[in-house]
Specification:
Strand content: 25-35%
Order of helices and strands: EHEEEEHEEEHHH
CATH superfamily of the largest domain: 2,3-Dihydroxybiphenyl 1,2-Dioxygenase, domain 1
Distance between the termini: 53 Å
CATH class of the largest domain: Alpha Beta
Oligomer: single chain
Structural class: alpha/beta
Number of domains: 2
Largest sheet: 4 strands, mixed
């Protein structure tokens, strides 16, 4: 069955595509693995290893490819997750950092597979685009000083406290 989504993203992994996709779909509602194709005999990778894993992440289709060590995921591309609560931020942050992930500045992190994520409070874009430049500048300064997003601190900066 053809996908209803015309454009999607392919993420290149060495040999961890299936493992990564299964982790990712476990983290967000409305997520699931939809298809797996596997390498056959005489392929460039071990027989039976997933070649591609197609999955939906919060309703968005992505594909993970096991292509070997030729290319690496880089920070120039990231998945952005808008979170409604601090509890959701904390849960995703912990899960994505587990087993070797690395925190980065401003709500960015890199998971154990090397994929970069932006964990963003859902209210942040509106705060940063506020018509009052002082409000948006206070929020931006707060974001630049954070590692993991703190909704209460961002709201306080927005209000000028």
């Amino acid at each position: 069955m053809a996908s209803a989504q015309k454009v999607s993203t392919c993420l290149w992994f060495d040999a961890q595509a299936e493992e990564a996709a299964k982790l990712y779909v476990s983290l967000l509602p409305n997520s699931r693995v939809t298809a797996i194709s596997r390498y056959g005999k005489n392929a460039r990778m071990p027989e039976g290893l997933a070649l591609t894993v197609t999955f939906e992440l919060a309703g968005t289709e992505l594909m993970a490819l096991n292509g070997g060590p030729h290319y690496k995921l880089i920070e120039a591309a990231s998945l952005v997750v808008q979170c409604e609560s601090q509890a959701e931020i904390d849960r995703l942050w912990s899960a994505l950092l587990a087993d070797g992930g690395k925190e980065q500045q401003c709500g960015w992190l890199k998971d154990r597979y090397g994929l970069s994520w932006q964990i963003v409070p859902a209210a942040l874009p509106a705060m940063m685009q506020d018509a009052d430049p002082e409000r948006s500048e206070r929020v931006m300064a707060m974001v630049m000083g954070m590692v993991k997003p703190d909704i209460a601190a961002l709201e306080a900066a927005y209000r000028g406290h």
